[in-house]
């Protein structure tokens, strides 16, 4: 337990963290990787270059300081991060390394404003926070290991099939190399793949949503090839698309994540953009199989039909299930798309169209690029939908999408 004085000191640093938080976490990562380059085997290098990891950590530190006297208030965030840590293989021995470098970064960035009293208070607070993470993550490791077909860390899986789903998305079907059973998962969860890419100094770990339903004799991931554009080309996605073939072996983690389909009688609305359809397609397939009386509206946005995965499968599902209404929005439909009426709307999802096709008394799940999710989230709130009804998944470090919408 932290003393009242320590809690008071930590809370006094909240305004400072609001201003200098990202500078602290940026310096933290610089020093961490300089002194412990072996940790580059765990962290996503692209998120580091884009600053998303630094921003996410700054938000987490800020929240911890705000709620240091009631840490139970941030347990949902702790569990969300713990899912990521478990899937990456973060271990208890990593926490002292992280703690020492975080304190060094605080001292360096704040300078004389960081007194010995403040540094000691943060040392004590970090110990409490680290213990909470370690305990939650150990429980998750145990649960992952003890379930049917379970395992604790990474396990080799064989690629048994590779299917091109669209011009940019390819599915990989995975089975355990040792012939053991597939661990169960909840629709919406992801696995981590550890890639040893030829010519790269460090292993790369990436999370990919499972796109099939639990109970099948394989895990399927459907991966978008990231060719660059506004961001660096995806090393792992290009490695998977271009080099990994049927028969190859990939180390993967057991399924993880808390963005999962809940079972109830309320209507279900799934809204995805681009490759954000992968966890939602698993949710859609699961809901149709297990929640047969639940009304479902599925809305997907893509560039055009060429980039849209699972097109024919979605049409078949809509034919077979009266409970499903599916809508497709193509940003730049081709002439062929228009000729065959393969979409419901051209351009972007907008508020009037969304209002005309979705119920408001529903559970909402959204996934896609960050600008897409921000825009959809704010359209939903403009329709009077409570934030508690809206669930979303972030590819990469968790950020808040309730801030003002970005253009899409």
Topology:
Elements: H1 4-12, H2 14-35, H3 45-50, H4 52-66, H5 75-88, H6 94-110, H7 116-146, E1 155-164, E2 169-176, E3 190-195, E4 204-209, E5 219-224, H8 235-242, E6 249-252, E7 268-273, H9 277-290, E8 296-302, H10 311-320, E9 324-330, H11 335-339, E10 345-346, H12 351-357, E11 363-367, H13 370-382, E12 390-393
Helix pairs in contact: 1-7, 2-4, 2-6, 5-7, 6-7
Radius of gyration: 22 Å
Low-confidence stretches: 403-408
Number of helices: 13
Helix content: 40-55%
CATH superfamily of the largest domain: Globins
What is the third-level CATH name, the topology of the largest domain?
A: Globin-like
Strand percentage lies at 15-25%
Strand order of the largest sheet: 10-9-8-7-11-12
Shape: globular
Number of strands: 12
CATH class of the largest domain: Mainly Alpha
Q: Ends: how far apart?
A: 46 Å
Secondary structure category: alpha/beta
Keywords: Detoxification, FAD, Flavoprotein, Heme, Iron, Metal-binding, NAD, NADP, Oxidoreductase, Oxygen transport, Transport
Pfam family, one: FAD_binding_6
Organism: Paenibacillus yanchengensis
Catalytic activity: 2 nitric oxide + NADPH + 2 O2 = 2 nitrate + NADP(+) + H(+); 2 nitric oxide + NADH + 2 O2 = 2 nitrate + NAD(+) + H(+)
Summary keywords:
408 residues, alpha/beta, Globin-like, Elongation Factor Tu (Ef-tu), domain 3, Rossmann fold, six-stranded parallel beta sheet, four-stranded antiparallel beta sheet, 12 strands, disordered C terminus
